[in-house]
Amino acid sequence: MLKLGEKIIIVEDRFEQNMPVGEYGFIIAYDRNNDSAFDYIIRVPKANRQFYVPATDIELETTLLELEAERTSREALIDYALATRNEELFKSIMNGGNGVQAEQEDDEGAEVLSPEAFIKQVNLKAWI
């Protein structure tokens, strides 16, 4: 649940209320009515109106900025891989990786622990 006063962006208009999609607004109240399809009441300064909206119609501004930054960095890595003809980097990015080669090997497959040893390790880590 989003906090009151948080800055949000309108990403959809499911109930066709003529909301300005792509504009920002602020959460001013929660709709506590169980029979209602709406979750929040938002204030949109540009439209000088308040709207009842479901949670799927809005997204936090910070979340959208993070997604845009990830997309931009992924595109930059793809451009770099193509410019340097780095096939491994390109394939790892296109397969959903972030381009950084994590050289971690699974120790779990090499060493099988008994249930008592596993519980002892968990308890040691939990104690610390």
Brief digest:
The chain is an alpha+beta fold and 128 residues long. The chain is 38% helix and 19% strand.
Verbal overview:
With 128 residues, the protein is an alpha+beta fold. The chain is built from four helices and five strands. The protein has helices at 61-84, 87-94, 107-110, 115-127; strands at 7-10, 24-30, 40-44, 49-53, 58-60. It has a five-stranded antiparallel beta sheet with strand order 4-3-2-1-5. The radius of gyration is 24 Å and the shape is flat. 9% of the residues are buried.
Supply the key terms:
128 residues, alpha+beta, 4 helices
Helical element count? 4
Specify the biggest β-sheet: 5 strands, antiparallel
Oligomeric grouping of the chains? single chain
Rg, please?
A: 24 Å
| Strand-residue proportion | 15-25%
Q: Which outline best applies?
A: flat
The unreliable regions are: 101-110
Separation, N- and C-terminal Cα atoms: 32 Å
Q: Percent helix among the residues?
A: 25-40%
**Main sheet strand line-up:** 4-3-2-1-5
Structural class, from secondary structure content? alpha+beta
**Could you tell me the mean pLDDT?**
83
Order of helices and strands: EEEEEHHHH
Number of strands: 5
Provide the fold topology.
Layout: E1 7-10, E2 24-30, E3 40-44, E4 49-53, E5 58-60, H1 61-84, H2 87-94, H3 107-110, H4 115-127
Antiparallel strand pairs: 1-2, 1-5, 2-3, 3-4
Helix pairs in contact: 1-2
